[in-house]
Each structure stands twice: as structure tokens, then as C-alpha cells.
């Protein structure tokens, strides 16, 4: 029983230290793509990201993580309550122990700037490329295009 109390006391102390080190109430976001910086060390409440291991939300004091972004919508919940949505084609997300988050996207576009008709046309073109692909490399590239454009169409809907 004494061992159990010691373990609980040790866990409680480490949890409290982790919350203090990570700045439990604060989360800083850097979100960039090659042509633009969308957030530069901005304080935010929450971030939802699409990942190959499944979509997940990021809150302050999230466990440190490194993940690959899949094509889809990243939602940033700002401190003023606004939710901003961005379509990303791919990239990485890094969550650090100090509650800083880096989102690096290959491409990032505000969902409000997307055109569903253009997205559907891109999907049709990608499907045609797959149908006419004659090499394994061409087939793989067409499959990637289809995956991205399907997510793009879904983001527009």
C-alpha cells in the first residue's frame, strides 16, 4: 500500500511539473507553406488536423508528437473563437513539449478560396491520367493526384 501511495505521489508531481513546463493554458502555432506564413507563433485554442493515422485535435499540453498530414482540412480555433479552415495537400505537424506546434504544408489554401467546379475538373483530369498511365510511376503519381483532388472536392462541399 505504501508503494502505491508513493507511485501516485510521484505521478501527481510529474503531471503538475509537465503542466507547468508546457504552459497548460497557452499554445503557440506556426503554420506555413512554401509561399506563405499563415500563423507565426500565434496563440490559438485548438487545431484539428488530418493525419494518415487518423484525424486528431491538438490542445494545450498535448503529448509531443510528429505526424504526417494527409490531404484534407486543417481547422484552427483562434483565441477569439473564430474557426479558420485551410485545405492542405500534405505536410507535417510537430507538437513540442512546450506547447508549440509547427504545421508545415506543401500547399495550404483557405477553404473559402476553393472552387468546387475547378476541384471536380481536377479530379476528372487525375482519373483520366490514371486510366492512361502505362508505367508504375505514372500510376502512382495519378493515384496521389486522385487522393489529393478527392480531398479537395470533399473540402469544397
UniProtKB/TrEMBL annotation:
Pfam families associated with the record = ATP-synt_DE_N, ATPD_C_metazoa
- Tell me where in this chain the F1F0-ATP synthase delta subunit C-terminal domain is found: 114-155
Q: Could you name the Gene Ontology cellular component terms for this entry? A: mitochondrial inner membrane; proton-transporting ATP synthase complex
UniProt xrefs under CDD domains = F1-ATPase_delta (cd12152)
Transport recorded as keyword:
yes
* Subcellular location(s) per record: Mitochondrion inner membrane
Q: Tell me a Gene Ontology molecular-function term this record carries.
A: proton-transporting ATP synthase activity, rotational mechanism
Which species is listed as the source? Ceriodaphnia reticulata
- This chain's protein is named ATP synthase F(1) complex subunit delta, mitochondrial
Query: What family classification does the UniProt entry report for this protein?
Result: Belongs to the ATPase epsilon chain family.
Highest taxon, organism lineage: Eukaryota
Q: Subunit structure of this entry?
A: Component of the ATP synthase complex composed at least of ATP5F1A/subunit alpha, ATP5F1B/subunit beta, ATP5MC1/subunit c (homooctomer), MT-ATP6/subunit a, MT-ATP8/subunit 8, ATP5ME/subunit e, ATP5MF/subunit f, ATP5MG/subunit g, ATP5MK/subunit k, ATP5MJ/subunit j, ATP5F1C/subunit gamma, ATP5F1D/subunit delta, ATP5F1E/subunit epsilon, ATP5PF/subunit F6, ATP5PB/subunit b, ATP5PD/subunit d, ATP5PO/subunit OSCP.
Q: Upper taxonomic classification of the species?
A: Eukaryota, Metazoa, Ecdysozoa, Arthropoda, Crustacea
Under the heading InterPro entries, the entry gives:
ATP_F1_dsu/esu_C_sf, ATP_synth_F1_dsu/esu, ATP_synth_F1_dsu/esu_N, ATPD_C_metazoa, ATPsynth_dsu/esu_N
ATP synthase F1 complex delta/epsilon subunit N-terminal domain sequence ranges: 27-108
Question: Which gene is the coding source of this polypeptide chain?
Answer: EOG090X0JDB
Function, as annotated: Subunit delta, of the mitochondrial membrane ATP synthase complex (F(1)F(0) ATP synthase or Complex V) that produces ATP from ADP in the presence of a proton gradient across the membrane which is generated by electron transport complexes of the respiratory chain. ATP synthase complex consist of a soluble F(1) head domain - the catalytic core - and a membrane F(1) domain - the membrane proton channel. These two domains are linked by a central stalk rotating inside the F(1) region and a stationary peripheral stalk.
Provide the coiled-coil residue spans: 116-143
Sorted keywords for this record are: Acetylation, ATP synthesis, CF(1), Coiled coil, Hydrogen ion transport, Ion transport, Membrane, Mitochondrion, Mitochondrion inner membrane, Transit peptide, Transport
